[in-house]
Design a protein that fits this description.
With 866 residues, the protein is of the alpha+beta class. Helix content is 27%, strand content 24%. It is built from 16 helices and 38 strands. The structure holds zinc ion (ZN). Pfam families: Alpha-mann_mid, Ams1-like_1st, Glyco_hydro_38C, Glyco_hydro_38N.
Amino acid sequence: MAAAPFLKHWRTTFERVEKFVSPIYFTDCNLRGRLFGDSCSVTLSSFLTPERLPYEKAVQQNFSPAQVGDSFGPTWWTCWFRVELVIPEVWVGQEVHLCWESDGESLVWRDGEPVQGLTKEGEKTSYVLSERLRASDPRSLALYVEVACNGLLGAGKGSMIAAPDPEKTFQLSQAKLAVFHRDVHSLLVDLELLLGVAKGLGEDSQRSFQALHTANQMVNICDPAQPETYPAAKALASKFFGQHGGESQHTIHAMGHCHIDTGVSRCTSKCVFFSQLLAVLIQMQLRFLTMEQGLMKLDLRPRAWLWPFKETVRKCARSWSTAVTLMEQNTDFIFACSQAQQLEWVKSQYPGLHARLQEFACRGQFVPVGGTWVEMDGNLPSGEAMVRQFLQGQNFFLQEFGKMCSEFWLPDTFGYSAQLPQIMQGCGIKRFLTQKLSWNLVNSFPHHTFFWEGLDGSRVLVHFPPGDSYGMQGSVEEVLKTVTNNRDKGRTNHSGFLFGFGDGGGGPTQTMLDRLKRLSNTDGLPRVQLSSPGQLFTALERDSGQLCTWVGELFLELHNGTYTTHAQLKKGNRECEQILHDVEVLSSLALARSAQFLYPAAQLQHLWRLLLLNQFHDVVTGSCIQLVAEDAMNYYEDIRSHGNPLLSAAAAALCAGEPGPKGLLIINTLPWKRTEVLALPKPCGAHSLALVTVPSIGYAPAPTPTSLQPLLPQQPVFVMQETDGSVTLDNGIIRVRLDPTGCLTSLVLVASGREAIAEGALGNQFVLFDDVPLYWDAWDVMDYHLETRKPVLGQAGTLAVGTEGGLRGSAWFLLQISPNSRLSQEVVLDVGCPYVRFHTEVHWHEAHKFLKVEFPARIRSPQATY
Ligand SMILES: [Zn+2]
């Protein structure tokens, strides 16, 4: 008798198939319920520790009997499980899995090596013990499972971006052996993809109905209880996916990837540094910055991204051991991996895994990308530090994997400086992959594939995977979005597609690979090929003739608060960039002067790497948890405490034998001659002011009291306080007038008489704003905060003269910002100096407030040179 004709309604048919594969409904009789067959228990024992122990040490501890249902914790602790298992003999010929479900992130160890990560959130809950158990295989063995008491995205209390909950408990909910039915899994993948095609192409599409008919027919002929019916259902699916599209199909290059946000971990080993004291005064680079408090955001909100630093190392081990297993089982699977720092951690702590990565790199399956030490912030590091990211990264990749990276890889950062194309080109990189601009709040970026032109005209080819994610799963929906969302249709016929759980690591799964392989060439869908970044960019370059060019910065319309959040991190970063710059300049000069000088190359590399690590896109930005911020501050302290002695040693070698009162020399590490007022140390600990001139990248003896240069033709600074309490500072170049509360009422260029402060307005005006963003508290500052402006009014009579004139004049005042917060400020004008400096110290005890200082200027110009 013929089967009943297919008369059903689209929706009921669709939902019928859904129920057939559902993990929730009808699992007693549907296909999903047959995914696993027979099972048996394992014998468990466990050991709990607050430390992150190496395997060798962990397995020597005392393990106590444990069972499924046990709870452990708290947050950031580790529970090691010993799993003793005996595979039943009757399972010979079958695929056998260890099924493991627990809260937290787990790593399976076998024979002393990490072999796979297991996380519920990352859809990895079974470890393949044997793809096909042979009679000769050992059937009893012991594994270890290292369970970290944190999730893929940390341990946020209530929400992902909240501060961690230190008291969370974790539970083991499943641990057993089971027979896995690969044929059922294969049919489930087919049916889910067919549902995806039916839904994604919609009821207007002929192909959508073909997919739905095929799926419905498969349900009709497949009896979950009768495996002998599976092949006929499989044949129907194979026929559908084997119907190819035409030559013009779009090609998607799917690349396995796993974005792991880098924390920072305190090193236990330290370089040996030497320390030498010398009375040398170093003139720092930042001396020429003015109006340094132009924009300030200071607050004490909890930060949350998102796990302590040593956990990052374990995340790498969990994610990459999984990737290695997948590469073994899928010879066409290519996994792209960035961040030399993470690879270096794995090299030192998991050498066996590192060797496997090198092996797969030789086969072309493991592809190091990015070229940088970490995926750094794209705006806050100095140009020199950006170069060092590539220098340290590329050297590491060359040393460990035999070649440098040809693509810059920065999927997740908060905007991109216009100097990057030039720096990339200079570091041998012409290709750049990112996607973060898809997060723009207001304006959609107009391209996915384009040339990016930097400040000097350097151009690189940029690709944003049009699916707008770096954590794809291989669904039909994502594949279709990659085509429909592509803003460069007609200009290029290739797109990238990054699949694998990300941010907290995890990476690709076998199911994702099965989906993508099934979609390699199916009518109605784009072609999908497992590719490398190199293959993608080569294809894009081939037809790049029609691509548009974007000139200048790639600005992210979101997360702008990261420029000011945790101001101490920004300060530490800039100071340390400056110290390392100066150590290198002086050490190079010292070496040029004497071949006996030992250039501190190893120490500098170590310190640069610490600094580069802190420039990770969730560290220097301040969007990290408090634990990370504390470690970052400690690193800055390490760089200061080890960098400054190097600076003194280089200066001592450079200046040996030079004349000068009590050996005092002044060094200028900037490439132009400078004349400035300096506070010179006196023996009693006091200081005396002197006007000094130092040549470009050079030094000069400090002036003696008798050799102090005459001020002429420079006019000394005059300081006058009026009876109303206002103060005027005048050095003949500029004249500054402060009202009795410290606000700037006038700033005049004396020669021209030109007034810079806008008419009727006040400069140096502190203002408070509310700071309540839409979601990302540490990251964002929203435009609507401008509507909450409240000037902080000072009290008349608080302004006083500080330094009374001559070489330097200054005035200072106190300002009460709120009952809890206050600031003090000194306004300084030096002889011969064409700008005024504001030294501000803020005692800040506010939450969700934003402090700025305004300088409304009588200047209109679309451009500024600085
Ligand atoms: Zn990230």
